[in-house]
């Protein structure tokens, strides 16, 4: 999927928000400035968040709960993790009971990413647009790509 600008990237996140349900995991990969946080902000805005979502780079986890969003979401940025084992202390599995996980830098988990994760990768094209590609597990086959 080609995303021509930041607005298109945020709109793609908003489209995914309509499909998100408890237990879902969305992993966002790509280099610095590739569009991961813009996509996440579009998703969170479409879930009802009125203010701009901060990047969770320093906090690592930014939780969102109803009524500010329609579905509990943990926006997680694993960039600062040094080893996959450090993620165990974050309690991410608990969030899946009634909410969803939105994970930036999922590579930091090593091979510990859940098998039913929708994996989205962002790449910057020469003209500045973003290329979004997806690895779609069985749990997402009827939902991705959004129509």
Helix-strand blueprint:
Layout lengths: L1 E2 L2 H12 L7 E5 L6 H11 L14 E4 L8 E5 L14 H4 L4 E5 L13 E7 L5 E6 L12
Parallel strand pairs: 2-5, 2-6, 4-5
Antiparallel strand pairs: 1-7, 3-4, 6-7
How large is the radius of gyration?
Answer: 14 Å
Question: What about the largest sheet?
Answer: 7 strands, mixed
* Strand order in space, largest sheet: 1-7-6-2-5-4-3
Q: Secondary-structure element order, as H and E?
A: EHEHEEHEEE
Reported CATH architecture of the domain at 1-29 and 39-80 and 115-123: 3-Layer(aba) Sandwich
The overall strand count is 7
Structural class: alpha/beta
Q: Give the uncertain stretches in residue-range form.
A: none
Q: What is the CATH superfamily classification of the domain at 1-29 and 39-80 and 115-123?
A: P-loop containing nucleotide triphosphate hydrolases
Helix content: 10-25%
Give the overall pLDDT as a whole number.
Answer: 93
CATH secondary-structure class of the domain at 1-29 and 39-80 and 115-123: Alpha Beta
Number of helical segments? 3
Protein name: tRNA threonylcarbamoyladenosine biosynthesis protein TsaE
Pfam family, one: TsaE
Family: Belongs to the TsaE family.
GO biological process, one term: tRNA threonylcarbamoyladenosine modification
